[in-house]
Design goal:
heterodimer, A: 161 residues, mainly alpha, 3-stranded mixed sheet, 58% helix, B: 232 residues, alpha/beta, 4-stranded mixed sheet, 11 helices, Skp1_comp_dimer (chain A), ubl conjugation pathway (chain A), SKP1-like protein (chain A), SKP1-like (chain A), SKP1/BTB/POZ_sf (chain A)
Chain lengths: 161, 232
Amino acid sequence: MASSIENNNEKLTLKSSDGEEFLVEKHVALQSTLLQNMLDSDCSSADVIPLPKIDARTLALVLGYCKKHADASSSKQGELNSFDSEFLKDMDMGALFNLVLAANFMEIKGLLDIAAQKIADTIKDKPHQEVREIFHVENDYTPEEEAAVREENRWAFEGFP
Amino acid sequence: MSSRSHSAHNSESENESADSVDHPIGERSIEGSDSEPSENSDSDRQVSEPSENSGSDRQLSEPSDDPDSVGQVSEPSENADSDLQDSEPSDNSDSGCQRRRRKPAVDLITALPDSLLLHVLSFLPIEDAVKTQVLSKRWQYLWTCLTSLDFRFGDRPDKCNSDFVTFVDKTLLLCNCSKIKKLGVQLEYHFLSESHVNLWTRFAAVKGAEELQLDFDGARDDYWLPQLLYTN
């Protein structure tokens, strides 16, 4: 991806929703397809690119991920994998959700996938009540409706597996 | 063609696959239709907005929420962060009460648009994804939009093969996508399941699956793909 850039030392400024500015090397920013498209279509003439949906804390995390992945050579896949798992380790759910939203918005597929995987791992094998608590999902079924859903789908709940 | 492990590609859909595979998540519509051209980034931006808003609106309008449960949330600052529309930086001195006023109910995963929730579900084993329908009404039909269906019987001496076959049948019956990416089934094939497997392969063909993967390792009986598949 980086090979298409003429000048790797170019920098651009990203502005978070809460007004913090981040100076980013262009090859790092290009990890984001959104930014890449903006740069390709010359929308980048503005001095500062605003990212109105991403707060500074999340943007800092996103850019940390992008920098690591932009700087690592492809031969260091193992190193990147361990970076990825460390990156999300101990991350709280709020930060993780913001990260998923930011990765989706900025179109950073690798980050989107590892964050979604992490959320899925959290749901997996947990009883529903626990999942609801973890994610603060409000159960809007009435007890009768919930029983009906379970009953109608007994094949999923009591059959396999 | 008597093999125990097939991996067939539906040639009809193969030329489409190049277009569809790389769609960003945001562009994947709930119906699973990927006919939308992917070009400008605006379309991605839109996606995360509507359901995000509707999610929080729904929360705001819920009078039944127990206020104490919100106050008990152990990580208040993350909850604040979860609301992307809130442009204020999270403030550590902020009390739970103030935060509750701004964000009356905390439903972290509801803040994610359906397209992203589906992406999360796609990383779950299918049986876990199917079971999420009991979480809340929003989740009831979410899983039916999964475009990659991978059923694995696995190594389960305690489980009945016919229960698994029924599980696959019923899951496919409720699949709500006009087009799927993948259908994969791994089981110990038995000739009694032949009519079911035939239907699954036809399901994959009808849904324009880019990948059909049948893994019948260890099966006692051979399985032949229906001739119908080749005439597509």
